[in-house]
Amino acid sequence: MKELLLLRHAKSSWDDPALDDFDRPLAQRGLKAAKLMGLELAARDWLPDQVLVSSALRTRDTWRLVAAELPAHPRVVFAEALYEASAADILSQIRKVDPSSGCVAVVGHNPGLEDLAKQLAGSGSEARAHKRLEEKFPTAAIARFVFDGDWSGLSVARLTHCLRPKDLS
């Protein structure tokens, strides 16, 4: 059984409107939420073997804060291709991961990440998680999927959880 974690970056700061979107840091709320989600991943033993992270500052910072709460450090790939990526582009990157990875996390952006989560959620998905995903996939949210098969063939999976920071604090 494979496990996929889709993590939207934490809340970014808009304090400096002159900053390029790619270079926006996390807001105070985002710093807190990223740490909280890292603690939750560790508590649930949802520990990725490999992580794909958009190379934008806010996604890198989100992952750094999440990773600081995990007991082990997985292989991390910072990918410019994940910045402003469509659902199809994100899925293409996931399909290329190491076949031996049992759990993969992707730290990215909306709308691509949310679109991918909705696209992947197949039959057998947990109803409450599916409802949460349909309502909103806010910053620092995590959608957890499981499926049988290889990463290269991923097209549909069972959504088991959709966690939002406000649900945990």
Structure characterization notes:
By secondary structure, the protein is of the alpha/beta class. Helices cover 34% and strands 21% of the residues. The chain has 6 helices and 6 strands, in the order βαβαβαβααββα. The chain has helices spanning 28-44, 57-67, 87-94, 112-120, 127-135, 165-168, and strands at residues 2-8, 50-54, 75-79, 103-108, 142-147, 158-163. The chain has a 6-stranded mixed β-sheet, with helices on both faces. Helix 1 crosses helix 2 and helix 3 (87-94) crosses helix 4. The radius of gyration is 15 Å and the shape is globular. The mean pLDDT is 96.
The helix-strand sequence is EHEHEHEHHEEH
Number of helical regions? 6
- Strand order in the sheet with the most strands: 3-2-4-1-5-6
In which range does the helix fraction lie?
25-40%
**Overall pLDDT level:** 96
Terminal CA distance reads 30 Å
Largest sheet: 6 strands, mixed
Number of strands: 6
Q: Roughly what fraction of the amino acids lie in strands? A: 15-25%
- Uncertain runs: none
Outline: globular
Kindly name the structural category.
alpha/beta
* Gyration radius, in Å: 15 Å
Topology:
Elements: E1 2-8, H1 28-44, E2 50-54, H2 57-67, E3 75-79, H3 87-94, E4 103-108, H4 112-120, H5 127-135, E5 142-147, E6 158-163, H6 165-168
Parallel strand pairs: 1-4, 2-3, 2-4
Antiparallel strand pairs: 1-5, 5-6
